[in-house]
Amino acid sequence: MSATDSPAHTPLMRQYLAIKAEHPDVLLLFRMGDFYELFYDDANKAAELLDITLTARGKSAGEPIPMCGVPYHA
Fold first, then answer.
1. Which residues of 35-66 are buried (b: 16+ CB within 10 A; e: fewer)?
2. Is 16 exposed, middle or buried (0-12, 13-18, 19+ CB in 10 A)?
3. Could you read off the pLDDT of 28-66 as tens digits, one per residue?
4. Distance CA 60, CA 50 (A)
5. Can you give the CATH number for the domain in which 42 is found?
């Protein structure tokens, strides 16, 4: 079973991981309501590049999933 099929992930995270697997060399911004959010390594990179707060959303394998985001209208 791949990470994108894991029942431990939410449907949203499975979709994110599937898209990220198709485009591993890009920073993937995922629209969540009024924000574009980045997860995992993309979040770590973007938080540093954009000087924004790195936080977490949920857990994967017992570890917090790094997350950061910006308003869609920014």
1. bbbbbbebbeebbeeeeeeeeebeebeeeebb
2. buried
3. 999 999 999 999 999 999 999 999 999 998 888 889 999
4. 25
5. 3.40.1170.10
Q: Number of folded domains in the chain? A: 1
Q: What is the pLDDT of residue 2?
A: 43
Range of the domain at 43: 3-71
Please tell me the pTM assigned to this model: 0.83
At 9 the pLDDT is 81
Tell me how many degrees the CA angle 45-7-25 measures, rounded to the nearest 5. Answer: 25
Other CB atoms closer than 10 Å to residue 7's CB: what's the count? 7
